[in-house]
User: What shape does this take?
Amino acid sequence: MSTSSDSTTTTSATTESTHETAVVLPANLHARPAGQLARAAAGFTSAIQLEYKDRTVNPTGVLAVMGLGATVGSTVTVRAEGHDAEEAVTALAQILATAE
Amino acid sequence: MSASVGIVLVSHSAELAAGLRLLVEQIGSDSVPLATAGGTDDGRIGTSYDLVLDAIRSVDRGQGVVVLPDLGSSVLTARTVLEDHPRADVLIVDAPFVEGAVAAVVTAASGADLKAVADAAKEARHVHKL
Assistant: This one.
């Protein structure tokens, strides 16, 4: 299915790039942070993925994010590819890292 | 930011609609125009043509309105209202009530257009919660 995590890479000669970061959840991934992630993700042009265990979802889908069932202490990887990939990863990782 | 698509929650129960409203405002946004049409005109379990019509008018900001009925006569009443007041930019959407409302409000809050909001609600049927 999805690839395992690797470090940040620049994929081509264009300004498009791929970024990713892993976040250890400080709390279960509840409905409220899922909503924050979805709204934040919609503001970027890059293709964004959240990866948890062996599942990958598009974070613009609030229900899919909730459906991950990601629990406190587990790791969620944020990956983005596109012109604003770095900003997208930073923004979503921030939401994940500060979820209550 | 420009105006958002409006959302109407139609339920047999005023309390159910009001509770769902509180939930979606927490998960999604309290900035999306959202109205409830719950119960009958005199507060009993049932649906009200006038409450549905008023709710649609109250959330119309010119970007379209998505109407989400819970089941049964909510669907019939909402359809009757839309048949009497046909508009291309007011859509009744077949979606699970809670999940569809959450998806619709979150999508509307991100500035999506009417079709995207309606699609988000419809697709809620296919998202597993486990």
The longest strand of chain B covers residues 6-11. Chain B has one domain: 6-126.
